[in-house]
Structure formats: structure tokens, C-alpha cells
Design brief:
This protein has 198 residues and is an all-alpha fold. The protein has one domain. It contains eight helices and no strands. The longest helix has 30 residues. It is globular. 32% of the residues are buried. The mean pLDDT is 90.
């Protein structure tokens, strides 16, 4: 229990720093980014999780544990997309991992949340949970693709710019992103369950 509290507090602090810096530097524009949204979600859920650890004698409801797993999957997706897709595309790995608030949103928060999920938290996700992780990504993609298609906004990621990409590339990216999101959630579930069974 003590370890859970300590690491959750650290994650709360790094999450708060990321939120404050992002609000300062990016304003309302930040709410168009999957990275910021997933980190904000993680910050809120982790705060709720901590509340139950401290004030409800560690009796955390299943729904909170499930949402924490989903939030961890979303920030893990962020980390992987940055390292293997966006950083190579923009040729800026160091900048995207360590610049200003990005050190929190792209690096520290995702890796810390992943470590807590795998080695500290006791929740074992189900197959239903892995499917639920797709909902936020699908909602985000649907809204941003519509904004791009009707030219209300351009971006914020190259693969969402459906007006600039051939239709088949848009389909390719949709399948790739959604498929990868599910695979990441499934892999995390498998690893967690194997670690818990040791």
C-alpha cells in the first residue's frame, strides 16, 4: 500500500506539472492533441485513485482501476507514437521527448504510469477492458477527422490530415492506429497477468 501511495503521488506531481505547463504554453489549442487529452485523463483518474487509497482505506472501486488501466494504455500509445512515428517524421526525437512540458506528457508520465501498472497496481485487466481502451481513441479520431475533412482545423497530426492524404493512406492510418491501440492494450494485459501469476 505504501509503495502505491508513493508512486501515485509522484505521478500526480508530474501530471500536475505537465498540465500547468501545457496550459501556460499552449492555451486552449492543447485540447486538440491526443497527447494532452490522454495525460489530463491520466492525471484526473490518478487523483481519484489516490483519494480512495488515502480516504477509503485503499478500497478502490473496480471502475477506477479500470479507468486507470485505460488511461495508462492511452499514454503508452502516446509514447510509442512519438518515438516510432512522430519523432522520425519531424526528425526531432530529443525535442519531442524532453522539451518543456513534453518531458512530462511524452516521457515521464507515460513511463511512470506504465511502471506503476505493471509492477505496483494489483488490477488484472480483462478482455473487455482491452476493448474499452479503444473508445477514447475512436472518439478522438472521429472528431478530428471530421474537423479536418470539413476544413475547420488542420492537424494536429499528419495522419489526421485527410484532405492532404490519399484516401487509401487515410484508411491505412485508421487501421494502423486503431489496430495498434488494441495490440498495445492487449500486450499490456498479457504482461500484467503473467507478472501477477508469478
Amino acid at each position: 500500500m505504501k509503495k502505491k501511495k508513493i508512486f501515485s503521488i509522484v505521478l500526480l506531481i508530474t501530471g500536475l506539472l505537465g498540465v500547468i505547463m501545457s496550459l501556460h504554453y499552449n492555451g486552449k489549442e492543447q485540447f486538440l492533441y491526443y497527447t494532452q487529452l490522454s495525460n489530463f485523463f491520466l492525471f484526473i483518474i490518478n487523483a481519484i485513485y489516490l483519494f480512495f487509497l488515502y480516504y477509503k482505506k485503499g478500497q478502490v472501486p473496480i471502475i477506477v482501476k479500470r479507468l486507470k488501466y485505460i488511461a495508462t494504455c492511452l499514454t503508452t500509445i502516446t509514447f510509442i507514437v512519438v518515438v516510432f512515428l512522430l519523432a522520425p517524421y519531424y526528425k526531432a526525437l530529443g525535442w519531442m521527448l524532453f522539451h518543456r512540458e513534453l518531458i512530462f506528457h511524452h516521457t515521464l508520465n507515460p513511463l511512470l504510469a506504465l511502471y506503476i501498472f505493471l509492477f505496483i497496481d494489483d488490477y488484472k485487466p480483462t478482455m473487455k477492458d482491452t476493448k474499452l481502451t479503444l473508445i477514447p481513441t475512436l472518439i478522438y479520431a472521429y472528431i478530428l477527422i471530421l474537423l479536418n475533412y470539413f476544413m475547420y482545423y488542420k492537424g494536429p497530426y499528419p495522419f489526421l490530415m485527410v484532405r492532404d492524404n490519399p484516401w487509401y493512406m487515410s484508411i491505412f492510418w485508421a487501421i494502423t492506429i486503431i489496430g495498434s491501440s488494441y495490440i498495445i492494450a492487449l500486450v499490456l494485459k498479457i504482461i500484467k497477468n503473467k507478472l501477477k501469476n508469478r
